Amino acid sequence: MENLGTKSIDTARVLDHLRQLLAIPSPSGYTDRLSRHLMDTLTGYGFTPARSRKGTVTCTLGDGGARHTVLSSHVDTLGLMVREIAESGKLRFTRVGSPTYQAIETEQVTVHTRDDRAYTGVVQLQNASKHVNDELETSARNKDTMEILLDELVDGTEAVTALGISVGDVVSLDPRLVITPSGFIRSRFLDDKLSAAILLAIAEAVSVGMSLGRKVTLHFSVYEEVGHGASQGVPADAEEMLVVDMGCVGDGLACAETMVSICAMDSTGPYDYQLTTQLIELAKANKLQYAVDIYPSYGSDAASAREAGHDLRCALIGPGVYASHGYERSHTQGVENTVKLILAYLR
Predict the structure, then answer these.
(1) Per residue in 123-172, pLDDT tens?
(2) Is 98 helix (H, G, I), strand (E, B) or coil?
């Protein structure tokens, strides 16, 4: 990656941070371990991060100018929760956030009990054997037809509860990270752990001498997937929030996985016109691969920050991600273009 200051940000370091973040299960409401990881990582770089009561982690990287910018990403993910233990010993579940039923079918999962035990399993449609069920392909996939099979010898409700499993236990999905020689990044939860990894890599670079030219606070929210991530934790003197979340890739949009996406408007309304224009002009001036799009079904932490009453200019960018809320895919070029746009803006 091009050197954009006294130190450059190596994409390999972003990917290292991504691996570490993905290795820690963090469905919304089950983020304590990941918050502690962020605190330890940022403290290790010589900063003084803070953690709110709800688990949001913030970290100011310096006070290099009067202008104060918040860079915000979220580290909570989609997941499931046990809602019923069936007489068969299988688990019925509800969704945390909005993973699609199609995307979670046949997925490896882990059930996390409240006494810190963990049990693996798989999500399946009921009566999932093709040689038995002639209607397997046409059956509806929903909360009443799908279930979790535990990898344990259980034959009923009592056998499951004897394991310590109960209603309300969190169920995490295996991220299944793959990074190909051609630069593609495939995994669940690139929304938004890929962008969080970018922010950690920026913090790491600042710790060894990279200058940002202004006061910057990193904001890692933990309830974005359920709508109130940035409702608190935003510094009172912050003037603007640059949300770094996934960029949408799909029919009708210009963005590709190799690009940085600049969102002009999502389903909650338009982003700040002047700030978005400045980002577009910087992308042009720095010859970045970028696209400007309107996201038809999307909301970011900017919405929860505004709804909480924070007086902020807000913009949204991020690396292009395909198959959002499913088994997602991005590319290292998308990471590089996003990093370059962030640094160009901060300077």
Answers:
(1) 999 999 999 999 999 999 999 999 999 999 999 999 999 999 999 999 99
(2) coil
The number of CA neighbours under 13 Å toward the Cβ of 61 is 26
- Domains of the chain and CATH, by start: 11-77+189-346 (3.40.630.10), 79-173 (2.40.30.40)
What are the catalytic residues? 224
pTM summary value = 0.96
- Three-state DSSP at 122 gives strand
Residue by residue, DSSP assigns 169-235 as -EEEEP---EE-TTSEEEETTHHHHHHHHHHHHHHHHHHTT---SSEEEEEEES-GGGT-TTSS---
pLDDT tens digits, 306-319: 999 999 999 999 99
Q: How far apart are CA 2 and CA 239, in angstroms?
A: 29
3-class SS shares of the chain: helix, strand, coil, % to 5: 25, 30, 45
Instruction: Specify which residues 69 forms β-bridges with.
Output: 216, 240
Residue 32: its H or E element = helix 32-44
Task: In whole angstroms, give the CA distance from residue 76 to residue 222.
Answer: 5
Q: How large is the C-alpha radius of gyration of the chain?
A: 21
What phi and psi, each to the nearest 5 degrees, are found at residue 241? -125, 120
Distance CA 201, CA 317 (A): 17
- Sort strands 118-125 and 68-74 into parallel, antiparallel or unpaired: unpaired
